[in-house]
Design a protein that fits this description.
The chain starts with 6 loop residues before the first strand and ends in a 13-residue tail after the last strand. Helix 3 crosses helix 4 and helix 5 crosses helix 6. By secondary structure, it is of the alpha/beta class. The longest helix has 13 residues. The chain folds into two domains: 111 residues, Rossmann fold, CATH 3.40.50; 104 residues, HAD superfamily/HAD-like (Rossmann fold), CATH 3.40.50. Bound molecules: magnesium ion. The site of magnesium ion (MG) has 6 residues, from loops. Magnesium ion (MG) binds next to loops.
Length: 262
C-alpha cells in the first residue's frame, strides 16, 4: 500500500514493545527497515527517559532501533521551550530528568514553594506529585504563567494490563482548576513530527506515521500531512469515527507486505 512512500515514522511503545514484552513483528520490521535502507525515525512522547535509555531498554529486549533514530520528547523539549519562550523561571511537574533538561535549556527551575515566580509551568508525568505541588502548578497557570503540557496521555499502561496516571491526567487537573488550555509539546502537536521529518529530509506527504494511539499518533500524523497506520493491538480498541487511519493493522507484522522494496 505504501510502495510509493519514502520514509516511515514509528511510535515505539505499543508498536514494537510493551513494557518488557516484544510485540509481534517488532524484530522483523526493524530488520527489514535496516536491510532495505528505508529512511525511518521513532517518535515517542515518553517524557522520563532520553533516547539513549530507550535504546538501551530496547536492546535488552533484543530490539535494535539503530543509532540516532529515536526522536525522544525528553531530548527535544529544551529546544521547543527555548524557541517559544526564550528563557525564564519554570515550575515543573515531572521527573528529575525533565527538570534537568529544562534547566540545561537555560530556564531557572523553581522550588515547590516558589510557584508565584513562575513564567512557565511544564507538566509531565510526576511520580512525586503531591496535593501541594499540583495546587501550586494550577495557581501559577491561573495567575498567567505559560502552560505547557508534555503530552496528553492520561494513562501509562502497566504490564499487568492496568494503568498508572499519565502526565495528561495531571495536565487535565491543572487545566480544570486554572481554567486555561495548555500548549501541547508532544504528539499530537506538530513539533516532534517536524523534528523527525526534518532529519529524514522528506516532505510529510511522502512519509507514513505508524502508531497505536489514535489521539496522538494518528491524529498528529494526519495533521502533519502524513499517511497513517493504526496498530490497533488485538483489534479490541473501539475506533473513533472522527479519526480514520489509511491502514489499520493488529500488529506491526501486518505492515510488512506494505513496505517498499519487498
Ligand atoms: Mg504508543
Amino acid at each position: 500500500m505504501f510502495h510509493d512512500k519514502e520514509a516511515f515514522v514509528f511510535d515505539l511503545e505499543g508498536v514494537f514493545y510493551a513494557g518488557n514484552e516484544v510485540l509481534p513483528g517488532g524484530v522483523d520490521v526493524l530488520r527489514i527497515l535496516q536491510a532495505r535502507n528505508l529512511p525511518h525515525r521513532f517518535v515517542t512522547n515518553i517524557s522520563r527517559a532520553p533516547a539513549a535509555a530507550i535504546r538501551a531498554h530496547m536492546a535488552g529486549l533484543g530490539l535494535d532501533p539503530g543509532e540516532h533514530r529515536i526522536v525522544a520528547a525528553l531530548d527535544r523539549v529544551g529546544r521547543f521551550l527555548r524557541r517559544h519562550y526564550g528563557s525564564g523561571r519554570a515550575y515543573v511537574l515531572g521527573a528529575d530528568s525533565l527538570k534537568s533538561v529544562i534547566a540545561a535549556a537555560g530556564f531557572e527551575i523553581l522550588h515547590p514553594d516558589e510557584e508565584g515566580k513562575a513564567d512557565l509551568v511544564v507538566v509531565g508525568t510526576d511520580e512525586n506529585i503531591t496535593y501541594q505541588t499540583l495546587s501550586a502548578a494550577a495557581r501559577a497557570v491561573s495567575r498567567g504563567a505559560h502552560f505547557v503540557a508534555m503530552n496528553p496521555d492520561v494513562r501509562l499502561p502497566r504490564e499487568d494490563g492496568t494503568f498508572s496516571l499519565g502526565g495528561g491526567a495531571l495536565v487535565a487537573a491543572v487545566h480544570a482548576a486554572a481554567g486555561r488550555e495548555p500548549v501541547m509539546f508532544g504528539k499530537p502537536a506538530s513539533f516532534l513530527f517536524e523534528e523527525a521529518l526534518r532529519e529524514l529530509g522528506v516532505d510529510a506527504p511522502r512519509a507514513v506515521m505508524v502508531g497505536d494511539s489514535l489521539r496522538t499518533d494518528i491524529v498528529g500524523g494526519h495533521n502533519a500531512g502524513m499517511a497513517t497506520v493504526w496498530v490497533n493491538r488485538w483489534g479490541v480498541v473501539a475506533g473513533d469515527p472522527a479519526v480514520t487511519a489509511d491502514l489499520e493493522v493488529k500488529t506491526v507484522a501486518e505492515l510488512i507486505p506494505h513496505l517498499p522494496g519487498g
